[in-house]
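Input sequence (311 aa), recorded before submission:
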Amino acid sequence: MRVFVTGASGWIGSAVVPELIGAGHQVVGLARSDASAAALTEAGAEVRLGTIDDLDILRGAAAESDGVIHLAFKHDIAFSGGFESAADADRRAIDTFGEALAGSDRPFLIASGALGLKPGEVGTEQDAQPSSPPSPHWAPGPAKRLANAHATAALAERGVRSSVVRLPPTVHGDGDHGFLATMVAIAREKGVSAYIGDGANRWPAVHRSDAAHLFRLALESAPAGSTLHAIADEGVPIRAVAEVIGRHLDLPVVSISPDDAAGHFAWLGGFLGTDSPASSTWTRELLGWQPTRPGLLDDLDKGHYFADPSA
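Predicted structure, token format:
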């Protein structure tokens, strides 16, 4: 297939692109900078310069492709207080792709999130589907992103083989600069490796390479309107994560009260106390996906998260 990929040079995309090329697909990647374009060219992909706000570029690239994988999201805006704005931009891109692909039966995949699906219980692919509207715990921004996922799944009714791939909050691996790397940086800064409350709350996780493999399988054979879970570890207690960080940095491991979480963890405090395990049983059975890379704690123990940032 000729596959158009947004976010192609990002953390997930830079693993998806070689996964696709290695399986014989031709990749056209959206790049918003010369550096991103150079990285894509080196990886063996074609380049389309632009951003997800360039709707004409998205429309044209989709029309020329056999499938689309939409990974781009304005995380920098979202995490600086503009989650709703970022979700709105995402929705415009999704609607544009839907228009370009309608009636073609071509695959269209988006990345979504698995955090907060069913707090305190193991979330499944069937949770927070269009038939089960979000519960009141959903904030306006995340609720909008959930609505975007619903809109993507609904494109199946318009002749698009659409799929939503939910990613856990921790997509880990060497080079990660996300939640896990932020926890390590905060521990270094504060002189303690902390968790919130008793630290028993759980986060699902997946290695970046395993997630990339699932995107390829979904592109090739996921049924229209499906929701998939890129989940390898169903739920890792945050206290266990803090303990590994403390051991590698030789720092005490301490509990932070929920009232003090924002002061200690800044923006991460709003996420870190969530108990949000999730399973991928249905996804594995449907597509034969089997994660093979190290789990979250084993990957942390490899040490690459603790390389000296000043070196």
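Checked by second reader. The two ends are 42 Å apart (CA to CA).
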